[in-house]
Amino acid sequence: VLHPALYLARLWSEAHAHGAILHQNQAIQRIVEQANGVTLHLEHGEQWQGDRVVIATGRWANQLLNTLDVELALLDTSKPNAVACSFLARTAPQPLSLSANLIAPQLNVRPDGGGRLLLQALELDDLADPAAPPSTQSAIAEQFRERYQSLFADAGELQIEKIVVGQRARPADGLPAIGYVTPEQRVYVAVTHSGITLSPLIGRLVAEELVQDHASDLLADFRPQRLMGRSASDFAPIKRNFPAAQ
Predict the structure, then answer these.
(1) pLDDT (tens digit, 9 = 90+) per residue, 155-170?
(2) Sorted alphabetically, which InterPro entries does this protein's record hold (predicted)?
């Protein structure tokens, strides 16, 4: 199991040990590419300059890419869409020992640290609306409780702390978009669904491309150029995947 919070903490500690500097709460107004580097113009007038920049901002990627007159065909996650949005229920600490992700037809369950669980029921996602996340006393919450009880009959009553509507970073063809997007190859993008799951591999491949200037054969089919200058409607609808049904 890859625990996101622990994973990110470890990555940051290693980056900090190698001299990385973390800038927080500094919105980027625009990106300017030069032949020998790239400049980020920040909201309070400051500038950051470097050799390259990697845009790994998920479903918000186009907000930055648009400042370079670049846009990728990504799914619209602002509206109800079962392919782009999903209910996620976070529980209170539960009396259940689970050390791996559990994928079942009625419920997906992931350990979330401290005894908490993260629940997902893909069959409910047709009702997922980012503008109206359900309460813990809603019919959706009751569905989660019933499905949990049918899966763990002896685990006691499920306590749900919060339900959110997750909005996926998803290119219009469902595949990762990874690579340079500008003529001088100073701006690099990495946008994909299942980002946490894929990040150990993608992070290594991206770092090798940036540092060694060597294009990875493993990323050849996932370059962002196939999405540039196109809209999501230009692509066939993404087929919904129910892993437990395979």
Answers:
(1) 888 999 999 999 999 9
(2) FAD-dep_OxRdtase, FAD/NAD-bd_sf
